[in-house]
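Why run this: before we spend reagent on co-expression, it is cheaper to look at a predicted model of the complex and decide which construct boundaries make sense. The entries below are exactly what would go into the expression plan.
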Amino acid sequence: MFNTLAEIFSYEFMQNALLAGVLESLVSGIIGTLVVLNRMVGISGGIAHAAYGGVGIASYFGFDPVLGAVLFSLLSSVTMGVAHRKLRERSDTMIGVMWAVGMATGIIFVSLTPGYRANLMSYLFGSILAVSKQDIWWMAGIALATVLFVVLFYRQLLAISFDEEFATVRNLPVTALSVLLLIMTGLTVVVAMRVVGLIMVIALLTIPSAIASMFFKNMRVIMLVAVGLGIVFISAGLVISFLSNLPAAAVIILLAGLVYFLAFVIKRILLKTKT
Amino acid sequence: MTESIQAPTKSILRIEDMWAGYDGEAVLEDIQFEMFTGDYVGIIGPNGGGKTTLIKVILGLLPVMRGSVSVLGQSPVQARDRLGYVPQVSRTDRDFPISVWDVVRMGREKAGFLGVRSLSAQDKQAIERALGQADVLDLAKRSFNELSGGQRQRVLIARALATNPEILVLDEPTANVDGQSTARLYDLLAELNQSLSILLVSHDLMAISTHVKTIACVNRKMVYHNEKVLTQEMMDLGYECPVELLAHGVPHRVLAYHDHDHLSSNTSHKLEDNQDV
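The model came back. Tokens follow.
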């Protein structure tokens, strides 16, 4: 068993994948918890899909698709965030439109891009096994920013997530932090995009913190447990995918989903025995 | 700030010719209102009549369209951190993972930008005192989401008290709270009123009329005479007044014989009496 694992992770691409997985778990566990608590899951889905527009445009003009995705997701996250704040319930439709328009833009530009295009599909379905050193540097930077963000603003983020009006009356920097959270969400989406692809980003963002919040009642603990669960899902998914020759992203998500349902059932049983 | 000649009270909230609303559409028209230290004002009115809008204006969350609002001699935005805001329990997330202590601690967060500040001895004292005042000290370690409606409401009052407010502003404090807890809540508010001015909003006239010192009525417009009288004017404003009260005739003095300094036990009896009518 140990020998097999040692062999699997002796490959450089597997080491990179594992490192990417850890960085991704760090970012998704922390930001995902805030996204779930602030009911921004729809917005983050929109950001993820709109980011494909950036991937398409970047590859058409010949620069790094990750940079394109970063710029596009920042733009769309702030736009959707502002729409959400201004329109509230009615922002649903607008987020849906941006979601689709971003995708369509990406598809058009990808199809216009001459030459080898298979690589561009990897942004949709993930390519953790093909993460480059450059990707890892992006991820490490974003992970560092995420940790700083939550360490520096933990109390304010907690107050704003729980009760925005009260936080405003207390003169906490509600608008600034909401915009920062949107920006961090946009960056998180880009990191998760390399690992599981745009289409499955929401799963990595929500499942670990959803499981953690079934069993823990403290935001800090939920974040830490979500990070841990993310690392478990991604590394176990990598091993299973290596051994079974199945696509890593899909294996990771299925594993996470399976644990989610198990946790749900366990939680139910626990509640029943309690009463 | 204007000093009153007769009493040692001063004006703490003054609203003049105020219009407010959303998207250019007025919800409140031509509001005149003044509150003094030690007041305990209950604002009643039908749902959708503009009560919450009025609270948002006072808290500096919504700019006025016309007129002026002065809170503690300042603009609402400048003065808002001197107000203790208690939102409706139903507006908070039922499943939010947070302890009672952490909810009340929010009352001590400062406007400064960084969140790494550790809790000072003074903060800790203020939180404990607030928890004690609202009678939820024994719940401090509990999770907010496993409490009853009445307990959660008292935790939110504790959070407001932790800010050392000069005025307590409550939005529908008894919505989602059972009868017994409601009586307990009003006892608490009467006690707090000995050192704090209170403004509370409710659609439930019966519940608040026995507890507050003065009643205002809001339904687009506002009627307020700085006394505990329900006038024809208030009725005309479109308030669907409980039949029991109308039966006594209008204008109706709502328990005006009551001694404000000895509220509580007496009060809950009166509430029951009224309901029996």
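The longest strand of chain B covers residues 11-22. The CA atoms of residues 169 and 199 of chain B lie 5 Å apart. Bring this page to Monday's planning discussion.
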